[in-house]
């Protein structure tokens, strides 16, 4: 049987050159769209890098290292410098502005760990001229809701005898205890009253307080 040669005929070089390439090959218009998309992505990534780099910038500010009660003088020992990522709207005192808060009086109770804010202190003592601070003790169940430092209060001294009358005056809370005494079970409160009323309030055995409208606080207004 005769054998027939079945090998394929050689392909001419011209045929190889004219064969279409395999794979995806976008048109010119589509290539332009892809390039534009890549450029926008690059811009977005660059914008995010700028934003995150700004958020990671740390600022040296002052932090309170001990509990400072209202009316106490703030010293340099009460503060330390820390680095923090802060929103620009947070009015924390910069480390270089420590002179703005040292030797100032705390307007309110400042908890340890808080960032120092200039509005928390003032140059003048909290006790107004012609006034005195009296320490009173009341039952925890008689502490009104909303009572805090610098609250304006009505002070009622209940007489020991039925023949005596109630003594009523107004004052402002300078400091308050965080919890009742473990021995007496009473809650401590320091209240600013006029000098004329101070002795009567201090002598009272049964004192009640009523939270009033805050009104104008002379001491803090003088502090700016």
Strand adjacency order, main sheet:
5-8-7-6-9
The separation of the N and C termini measures 119 Å
Q: What is the average per-residue confidence, as pLDDT, rounded to a whole number?
A: 76
Structural class: alpha+beta
The fraction of residues assigned to DSSP E strands is 15-25%
Dominant shape: elongated
Largest sheet: 5 strands, antiparallel
- What is the CATH top level name of the domain at 131-217? Mainly Beta
Overview of the structural elements:
It is built from four helices and nine strands; from the N terminus they run H-H-E-E-E-E-E-E-E-E-H-E-H. It has helices at residues 13-18, 28-55, 195-202, 218-222, and strands spanning 59-64, 79-84, 105-106, 121-122, 131-138, 152-158, 167-176, 187-194, 206-211. It is an alpha+beta fold and 224 residues long. The strands form three sheets. The protein has a five-stranded antiparallel β-sheet. Among the domains are: 59-122, Type Iii Antifreeze Protein Isoform Hplc 12; 131-217, Beta Barrel (Elongation Factor Tu (Ef-tu), domain 3), CATH 2.40.30.
Label this structure with key terms:
alpha+beta, 224 residues, five-stranded antiparallel sheet, two-stranded antiparallel sheet, Elongation Factor Tu (Ef-tu), domain 3, Type Iii Antifreeze Protein Isoform Hplc 12
Summarize it.
This protein is 21% helix and 25% strand.
SSE topology:
Layout: H1 13-18, H2 28-55, E1 59-64, E2 79-84, E3 105-106, E4 121-122, E5 131-138, E6 152-158, E7 167-176, E8 187-194, H3 195-202, E9 206-211, H4 218-222
Antiparallel strand pairs: 1-2, 3-4, 5-8, 6-7, 6-9, 7-8
